[in-house]
User: Which sequence fits this backbone?
């Protein structure tokens, strides 16, 4: 099960090792729309999708990751001089998405609506602001989940397995998924900490929309097409990287298992149960329960049993890895500024440990098959003297082969097999973006050298066909 081979390589296990040498990233895929804070205009909600380059598997498990940033826009004045975070292209996210895609997953880095006022001087007003921000974000996450499952039921452009999805994120990104999953009934909105001094519910569903983002006063202002609503939004497991739940009463039996990492001295989101403060200005907001108490409660209810059954007897609870000391928050590596909150080397050291921890637990939780590749799968790309770029995928090819050109036009293509036989290839344009498609049924199984002629010049590529 390999593409073009790298000499001297050893077998790689899919989902555990990195059997793929590269990734293909589709940026700014619009998964929905909704109305942001302090606006009446719809905005597009976007995600970046990472796929293993050269992969031919028809259905791949999915990981959805959400950035941190205290629900504040990057470069917001409320960041009080700190460097920006809160983007689907934060450095730690790009690194993590790339690594996990090389393991064989389809990885989604999604953004959601941002914005709230952490400077409110009255405590109940701050609680209302942050709850409203979480509410909007969890609506968007549900829309993203439903968009992916709807697309899988139709054309399935990213070849995903809709029954094998893990979702979560770092800090505030983890809050989003935890509350989308666990804050799921209207009566839960009446918990004491969700009420003002007069007993009124702080989350205004008339103004902000229902659990699923549908605005009763403005039906057009929905984060999802109504056809999405027939698709489920629950993931099979949750990643919690330094996140928390507003109240342990929200955790119930049969919730998805949690795979968590947390710094025990995190000074924004507590490791146990305490007051959460914003990462900008350290303003106290609301009492929450971090990973220690959250995973312990999930374990008490039997939700972590799938991990213990697989032999993960983590301490203090299965599925949880605490990090001692300060500075664990690898997700504070968000850009390459001269004075970042966390430097690249420190972040990568922690990230290596995090990926080592989550990898086998994700594999077992999703019940993934054991697949070995004799060699690392690579997508060969030539060096072009004439300035064009060509991408050939999937490689190896089973049924179809695609040729993507950058700012160029295909004139003709021929291939020669290992015995010297020459084949004239018939590619057909399928989009305006210079993508060409060819069925490979007429080509015998084997390795080929392809000569591509374009308006800018010629290039040689290698590819393989399999059955």
Assistant:
């Amino acid at each position: 099960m390999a593409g073009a081979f790298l000499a001297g390589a050893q077998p790689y296990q899919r989902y555990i090792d990195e059997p793929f040498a590269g990734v293909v990233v589709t940026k700014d895929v619009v998964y929905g729309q909704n109305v942001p804070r302090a606006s009446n205009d719809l905005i597009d909600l976007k995600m970046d999708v990472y796929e293993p380059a050269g992969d031919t598997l028809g259905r791949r498990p999915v990981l959805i990751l959400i950035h941190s940033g205290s629900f504040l826009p990057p470069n917001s004045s409320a960041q009080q001089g700190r460097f920006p975070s809160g983007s689907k292209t934060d450095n730690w996210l790009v690194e993590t998405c790339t690594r996990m895609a090389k393991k064989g997953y389809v990885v989604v880095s999604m953004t959601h609506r941002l914005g709230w006022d952490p400077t409110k001087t009255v405590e109940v007003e701050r609680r209302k602001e942050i709850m409203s921000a979480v509410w909007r974000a969890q609506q968007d996450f549900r829309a993203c989940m439903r968009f992916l499952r709807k697309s899988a039921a139709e054309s399935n452009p990213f070849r995903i397995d809709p029954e094998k999805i893990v979702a979560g994120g770092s800090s505030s990104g983890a809050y989003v998924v935890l509350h989308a999953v666990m804050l799921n009934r209207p009566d839960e909105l009446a918990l004491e900490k969700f009420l003002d001094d007069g007993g009124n519910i702080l989350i205004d569903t008339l103004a902000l929309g229902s659990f699923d983002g549908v605005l009763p006063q403005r039906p057009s202002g929905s984060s999802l097409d109504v056809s999405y609503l027939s698709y489920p939004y629950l993931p099979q497991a949750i990643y919690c990287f330094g996140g928390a739940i507003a109240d342990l009463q929200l955790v119930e039996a049969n919730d998805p298992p949690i795979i968590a990492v947390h710094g025990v001295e995190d000074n924004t989101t507590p490791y146990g149960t305490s007051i959460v403060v914003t990462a900008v200005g350290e303003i106290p907001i609301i009492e929450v329960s971090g990973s220690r108490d959250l995973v312990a409660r999930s374990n008490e209810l039997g939700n972590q049993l799938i991990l213990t059954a697989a032999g993960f007897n983590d301490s203090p609870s299965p599925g949880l890895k605490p990090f001692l000391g300060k500075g664990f928050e690898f997700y504070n590596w968000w850009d390459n500024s001269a004075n970042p909150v966390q430097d690249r080397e420190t972040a990568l050291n922690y990230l290596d440990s995090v990926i080592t921890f989550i990898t086998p637990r994700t594999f077992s939780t999703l019940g993934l098959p054991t697949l070995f590749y004799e060699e690392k799968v690579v997508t060969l790309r030539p060096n072009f003297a004439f300035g064009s770029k060509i991408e050939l995928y999937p490689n190896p090819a089973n049924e179809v082969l695609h040729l993507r050109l950058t700012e160029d036009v295909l004139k003709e293509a021929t291939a020669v097999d290992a015995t010297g036989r020459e084949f004239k290839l018939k590619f057909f344009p399928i989009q305006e973006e210079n993508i060409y498609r060819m069925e490979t049924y007429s080509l015998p199984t084997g390795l080929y050298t392809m000569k591509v002629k374009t308006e800018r010049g010629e290039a040689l590529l290698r590819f393989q066909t399999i059955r």
